[in-house]
Amino acid sequence: MRLRKSTTRLVTTASTVALLATAAPLAIAHGSPARTEKTLTAAPLATWQTDGIVWSVAYARGVVYVGGTFESVRPPGAKPGQKEVARKNFAAFDAVTGKLLPCTHSFSEGEGTVRAMKASPDGKVLYVGGSFGKVDDTGVASAVALNTAKCSLRADFRPAVAATVRAIDATRTTVYLGGDFTTVDGQSRNYIASLSPKGKLLPFRADIDQPVRAVLAVPDHGKVLVGGDFEHVNGATEDSLVALDPSTGSTVTSFPHWIPLYSSVKALARDKTNFYVGAEGTGAGIFDGRIAGRLSDGKMVWKDFCQGATQAVVVQRGLLYSASHAHNCVRTPGGFPDGRRRHFLVQSVSDRRILHWFPDTDDGLGEAVGPRALVMAKGILWAGGEFTTVNGKPQQGLTRFTSGPANTAPEATPQLTAASSRAGKVKLTWQATWDRDTTELTYLIYRDRVRVASLKQRSTDWELPEMTYTDSVKAGSRHRYTIAVTDGRNTTRRSKPLAATAATKATATAPATATAIATKRSVGAPWWVNPFATP
Fold first, then answer.
1. In a 10 Å sphere around its CB, with 0-12 CB exposed, 13-18 middle and 19+ buried, how is residue 336 labelled?
2. What pTM does this model have?
3. How many whole angstroms separate alpha carbon 142 and alpha carbon 144?
4. Interval 430-448: pLDDT, tens
5. What is the pLDDT of residues 126-154, one digit of tens each?
6. Is the Cβ–Cβ distance between 341 and 326 less than 8 Å?
7. Residue 31 DSSP class
């Protein structure tokens, strides 16, 4: 969960794109073929906010439930203290529209926080855990259940859990709780327990030596995957990950050497064939990344080596989305060198490759790790955490991303420089920009307000190639050049005009022939413009 140093850095060399062109527009493609996987857009949907930390998000029957440590929520765009609606550590929203719903309960006392939520397979019940002693005016002990149809507190599921519940999963017949506790209903249960849907404590028992952080029930393969801080389970060494018998709690599968000593498993998810692990490490020799394993036999499929603790994982349509603060993924295909934190990643489940999807948050409040919880709801990714910005704009505690075409604009308009060392030739140079969800951008070159070239280039924020374009004009003529960048849907404003005079004869070195020309812009001019219009 802390930024870690690395002795390995990726050394990149800038690539250069050079074109010789006439006045006719050009279209040239560069770079390796793009991946075919379709990620979500990196542009966030308008979303309500919290005034504190979101620790858990869950989905059931068209509703997204949000739990954490907060006192109120406020509409999209509202500043702290504006238009706040009271919600004590729990809120509910329409999964598609994002509308705040009247479903509300106050979770208080204890540490006053909701840390884990999971719906039953049929979506009729929402199980809620954390550290709380009351729901509204009803005395409880850190775990309850709600009827989703009426948002009512169930009277039957009221286990007495002695400490914080941090993980929940549920099957048709069993509810599994993991956390910091060592007793449930007055009986010994070391950090994990199972109950019936009506709240009866079941015989399932495992001897675990430290807290559980993640639970994934896999009834179709006869196991329950458990992750956490532990080193020993049922008398054997089981570093942070183990598979247990779902009825007895005995060990079914061990995962030796998957997780090093100073790392903990914080998240588990699955698809039809694999399960996925998200880890957090502390100190030297740690592991912060993700692992894919086969559900059938527990064999490792792949492992990445990103640094920057992983807090949550969710899988959708062959892609693994994760919430972390990754800052060094140089050893992972498609990854980046050590540098700033990136709080969301998406990877192909087939080969662990990091794909081009880079929405971002700040570190935010609390322990300053950014996003902490993910859930997929009707094709929309909901993310909660302790962040206060998304893509550099104010947005606290909660955000969401949808499917569809890439929809973020290129991050900046390049600045041109120009030189002429050959008769009738003007060479323009600039550094490529990047886009959060589009790998290949198109650079539009204008001479005297007429588009004369269109150049394509792949780029990322950690590798911005230098690009050049050489224009053929009349020797000694003077022109004004501008540039804009488009991803096909969104286009930047054009750059400030740059005046350049073409040489009358060849020179040994390029003279300083370019002069920047300042232009006025209308107030409120849109970021997106028609890239092919001639003003």
1. buried
2. 0.88
3. 7
4. 999 999 999 999 999 999 9
5. 999 999 999 999 999 999 999 999 999 99
6. yes
7. S
